[in-house]
Design goal:
Helices cover 47% and strands 6% of the residues. The chain has 298 residues and is mostly helical. The longest helix has 15 residues, at 65-79.
């Protein structure tokens, strides 16, 4: 689309719509296309140029200065955007691959228009060439492929852009001491086993952060010590052990029938007077002694 005729804003918008670009680049491109000078007077720019300061671009688009610079780099790659920087005035922007701006230059068409312009042509084109962008060599993950091709043979991770991502992801985790190549091969083996041909980059980061050393021995927790069993020293309880508690009613009836009710009461009273305690405990002790002596059965 190279012609000496300056495209209208609609022509620019249709061109931008057909070209894949980031949202920031589209907003910058739309702002520049909407302020292109067609008469050599608009905002002090020659025909075919748009005049802006960097601060004006930030204010109009609502994006940061760093993002503006990245967007300008992208537009320079897509449409040949050039910038003539001026020290004390607005910079001049033109899309050199969309149309030939020099063919529309007011100096070549009508010198009278130059005299009527608010700013002279010499002032418009002065200034040093634009310096290279400080952000074109970024090492952020935005320049790393967002998906990973899963291969049967993983190959060397250091021949891919994912080695630094693995080393950053394993910092502060249990995988910090694990080999980067080992983690790379393990990630491929896991996806091959699950029949995946492509895996997102986020899966690699999650895999590294959750990885654990293969041979990791954790000390077993000591078994809780059983509380020592204290030996029974109560004489009444020791005498009652021979007669089960559940059979106490039968034991009482049998013993009363064998020795008589009076003798039974005398034995219970003797236990109480000797060892103290309740009548119930004394009865159990009497039953136990009778079982031991064979007077009644267990």
């Amino acid at each position: 689309m190279t012609t000496s005729t300056i495209p209208h804003s609609g022509d620019f918008m249709r061109l931008f719509a057909r070209t894949p670009m980031t949202g920031a680049a589209l907003r910058i491109a739309a702002a520049l296309a909407g302020y292109i000078s067609y008469d050599g007077k608009f905002r002090g720019a020659p025909r075919g140029y748009a005049a802006f300061t960097m601060k004006e671009l930030q204010t109009m688009t609502g994006i940061s200065g760093r993002t503006v610079r990245c967007a300008l780099d992208e537009l320079a790659h897509l449409f040949g955007l050039t910038i003539q920087r001026r020290h004390h005035d607005r910079h001049l922007f033109t899309f050199s691959r969309v149309y030939d701006a020099d063919a529309n230059d007011v100096a070549a068409a009508d010198p009278a228009l130059v005299e009527d312009a608010d700013i002279s042509l010499e002032k418009r084109v002065t200034g040093s060439p634009p310096p290279p962008s400080l952000y074109s060599g970024t090492k952020s993950n935005n320049d790393t492929p967002s998906s990973i091709q899963i291969l049967e043979g993983a190959g060397s991770v250091y021949e891919t852009p994912f080695a630094e991502i693995i080393e950053d992801a394993k910092k502060g985790t249990e995988a910090a001491g694990m080999d980067t190549q080992f983690l790379w091969k393990g990630f491929h083996m896991l996806n091959v086993r699950n029949d995946r041909a492509i895996a997102p980059l986020s899966w690699l980061v999650a895999f590294v952060r959750k990885a654990k050393p293969t041979f990791q021995h954790r000390p077993e927790a000591p078994a809780p010590e059983a509380a020592p069993t204290l030996a029974c020293t109560d004489a009444v309880q020791l005498m009652a052990r021979a007669a089960p508690f559940t059979n106490r009613v039968f034991h009482e009836n049998d013993l009363r029938r064998v020795i008589g009710p009076d003798a039974y009461e005398q034995r219970v009273a003797a236990i109480q007077s000797t060892y103290g305690g309740t009548r119930f405990a004394a009865q159990l002790a009497v039953h136990g002694q009778a079982v031991k002596a064979g007077t009644i059965t267990r």
